[in-house]
Amino acid sequence: MELNEFFYQHYWWFIISLLGALLVFLLFVQGGQTLLTTIAKKPIEKTMLVNSLGRKWEFTFTTLVVFGGAFFASFPLFYSTSFGGAYWLWMAILFSFIIQAVSYEYRSRKGNLLGTKVYDIFLLINGVVGIILLGVAVGTFFSGADFKVDKENLMDIYQPVISTWVNPYHGLEAIADWRNLLLGVTVFFLARVQASLYFMNNIADETIFNRARRQVLINAVPFVVLFLIFVGATLTADGYELNPVNGEVFVRKYKYFFNLIEMPWVAVMFLIGVVSVLYAIIRAAFSKTWICGIWYSGIGTVLVVLSLFFLAGYNNTPYYSSAVDLQSSLTIYNSSSSLFTLEVMTVVSFLVPFVLAYIVYAWRAMDKKPITEQEMESGEHTY
Asked: Which sequence ranges are marked TM in the entry (predicted)?
């Protein structure tokens, strides 16, 4: 393997990991949608919450699309295997995000066909189903999936399909794996914690602030418990490792634990992220004035998710292992695009900092003034 190719494969797994980490952070929008009826007790309060989330939902949707697009361009074999094989799982995720977009577009329009309550139900569905199923999908990076890969099938003129799914459920079986579901529910409670922190920061209303502060602690307890169970289960589970000499994949006990030991910089990043999230939760839950928790929690979340992606893909680890054919497992080496494609895309990726800068600028412009009840009553709200 050429040194350049080795570098670009690792570079693009970093880009994928960063997009995935940002997506998990931005899921606070979905988490907030599940808290609308919990925090809001009056119509004006719900209007404030919806408009707070409505100013950010496009960031989440766009990041999800870019995440999928980056996977398609950099690791096309994963895209064809997972998106093409586990299509019922991915279609359910996509559908939940489509109804979210429709809801924000039409829920407040006069004379809308379905009525505001129906669109609010759509937002709830997206908040529950979208988060949990995304967690389930990412969980397969650690638990594996039922697929086979045979590149010689490209020579078959009648069925030139490299990857095949070996069960009729096409991704829905991943929900039955307790490890995947555990991660999905963990991310669900994390999103609700971060949504509460976001409301405390973004809405200038004492009643909403106090209710959101209460929700931080209520949702933090199950989140921390489930997160610890997931980390413990992952670090003590058997994993798979690629032999870089002969290209064979074999079972290694405590693979992800040894990944932490053999990549100490990942362990440090993981610990910093965990401490940052816990600091945000504890201080926000017990302070009556602090509103900066979303930033500490957000940065911590990005660091933790980055660490998990690094554990899944670096150090000769198959990031998408096959539960039915070990040698079909996908690594960043055997599933990547050609060197030329990776090089060209790397040039394009240099635009990412400018995109992030624009997001920061747009975010600050939208949040220049916190949302108030007076603003909503003036009729200036959109959602």
From this structure: 12-36, 57-79, 85-106, 118-142, 181-204, 216-236, 256-282, 294-314, 339-361
